Amino acid sequence: MATKAGKGASRRACLKILAAAAGGVAAGVGGAMTVGKLGRAPEGPWRVLTPEEARLVEAVSEQIIPSDRDPGAKEAGVVHYIDRQLDGPFKRFAEKYRTGLACLAKTSQAMFGKAFEELGWSDQTRVLQALESNKAPKDIWTRPSASEFFGLIRDHSMQGFYGSPRHGGNRNYASYKMLGLEYPRVIGQNRYPDKKG
Amino acid sequence: MANKHVNAVIVGAGAGGGVVAKVLAEAGLSVVLLERGKWHSFDDHTDDELFNQRTTVLGNAYGPDDARYCRVVENPDGSTRTVLPSEGGYNNNAACVGSGTLSYGAMGWRFMPQDFQLKTLYGRPEGSTLDDWPITYDELDHCYERAEWEIGVAGDDEGNPFAPPRKKPRPMPAFPYNKEANILIAAGKRLGWHPFAVPMLRNSIPYGGRPKCIHMRSCCGFACPINAKCGTQNTVIPAAMATGNCEVRTDAVVSEIMLDGRGKARGVKYFDIDDRLQEQTADLVVVSASATETPRLLLNSKSKLFPNGAGNNNDWVGRNLQGHCYCGANGLMDEDIYEEAGPGACVAFSDFSHGNKGLCGGAMVANEFISLPYAFTNTRPPGSARWGLAHKEHQRKYYKRTIRVMGPVQEMPVFDSRVRVDPAVKDHWGIPVTRLSGRRHPHDVEIAKFVVGKVEALLREAGAKSIWSWVPGLGGPSGGQHQAGTCRMGNDPQTSVANRYGQVHEIDNLFIADGSLNVTNGGFNPALTIMALGYWVGEYIVKEWKGGTRFRA
Fold this sequence. Notes:
The complex is a heterodimer.
Chain A: H1 4-27, E1 35-36, E2 39-40, H2 51-64, H3 73-76, H4 78-86, H5 94-112, H6 121-132, H7 146-162, H8 174-179
Helix pairs in contact in A: 2-4, 2-7, 4-7, 5-6, 6-7
Chain B: E1 6-11, H1 15-26, E2 31-34, E3 71-74, E4 80-83, H2 100-103, H3 118-122, H4 137-152, H5 179-190, E5 195-197, H6 236-242, E6 246-249, E7 253-259, E8 265-271, E9 277-287, H7 293-299, E10 325-332, E11 347-349, E12 365-367, H8 373-376, H9 388-398, E13 402-409, E14 418-426, E15 432-437, H10 442-461, E16 466-470, E17 510-512, H11 527-547
Parallel strand pairs in B: 1-2, 1-9, 2-6, 3-15, 9-17
Antiparallel strand pairs in B: 3-4, 5-11, 7-8, 8-9, 10-13, 10-16, 11-12, 12-13, 14-15
Helix pairs in contact in B: 1-6, 1-11, 4-11
């Protein structure tokens, strides 16, 4: 359900992201993580996700909150938030992630003949739009449904990006800075003297 | 070792039970106040916007927890689903000392006199069990006053010609308005409306030995770091303990009210922190566990005389579950209206609480508590991008430019909107869980549509460029944190569970003191009314106690 404006903006961001991804491959020397034609998986260690799944989640989350003049989901470490919660309160979603990510990989192959991470920005967007609107191939998606899985990973990405940094995402208070909110603002405040009181 | 027999055992240390504990303990009764949760403070969770009582994606900060509790909800098609406490369908109230009053937004409303007499004023809509309360506003006035002074409310009635009458002002001055409120005040006045300050159970000046508010942006849903919010956990419960007559026992999950062969309550059974079954006998039992847990406890307490649950021989326990039919609108402004001064909600209008042609009641409307960045990701005009750069751009552009005004429309009680116990699903302790079913009355939606129209007009007058509103649908049971009505008070035992003093009709030493008693739920946040009912019930118990040996077995 991305709007026209969204698509236009995505196209602009596409070039930027590709450039960043290329840089990532070049810099990815010496890491123990999988390095193949998909590029280096994000730095672990991972609690629940495999390095390959982590790379896919990171790519999806970056589509959900793309980098522009402010950091996006990748830079804010959203995938770390998701992985950490899948080992905690989100344990109940772990199976859905495992199945959903596999179905997403298949959908990408079915639609464009490539892995999701290999696709250009706008094709990635198209895959996710197909998921969101439940137009992804029905023989691939049974449970969870494509839109249910997309809703889940979309919501969790927002939480990781905008939520409290203590849970693994929102690295360097990226979203607070973006919104112009002071942070941290509470620490120590309960010890401030009340001037009038 | 058996627990020592006491005069009164109270189940649930929230808005109602905390007050009853104080009234009884001060009158010299020995009291045990049982609470399934713990004592909590701000430091347990700080201002974690994913883990509090308002946004619960990582759990309920102040309970109940997802590991040990669950409920069953009936879908409109009759199928059921199991829900966890951190999920919306659970209709949760905090499980801790103070319950919701630890972390609430702390609006301290009195209901209006009309709210106690809806049936007489407007007539009963078809399909509703609408009735008048058996008590009037005037009778409850002194209890509201005690709640305002002993717990603490800031506010005045300046500017509100619809304010309910009072004998004594509130103890603290009203809070100042924020930028957004001033815009709404000007707009409201141009429309001929009457803006006034939202009364708050929060310190506008140092009060009760606690400091004044420091205006956190994260307030509603969080414990206060400096104790400036006034709940039962930092007022009446410590006062009850200070008498030496009240013991607060936490981590005590009550499973059953023990009933004797003569139809009286003997006390309660509960599981302690180590999951050991304990018994606490008492001369009288007060249940104040919330409108979803109080009926569950009564229904789970069976005896020969009460095969369908305590006080339920007429099948009214758990009926008439209500909450509020919350409706409202968002407006996008051209300039920043955000101020780094919480909690946000501070101006209200009571112009549409009553007297709306053809409508049975209404709602006050007020600006809303500050929406934290994650919560705001779901605040979008219809048709907007839910993700991608456009979504991010909206977040950046409008986080500080969105005004939300909302109103809690009072709901028509519906007999089949109800709390039962599930025949199969049990919690960690093996206690049958709450099962919620039913749907709201169509008239609630009519009222909400009317109220939303007014809110839209206000936002338009305030200069909002894009306005979108919402009205709840009919599907699913209502309830939420404002849950009420499931053990209605009334004069006729055939159509109510408790009498006008919260005393269960069929069991004279069993009392109810929470929102379950509410016949209707007012077009206002109900916390102060529940506190007032705590005084009302507590004062009656003390009077009866001193008048004889009525409750002794």
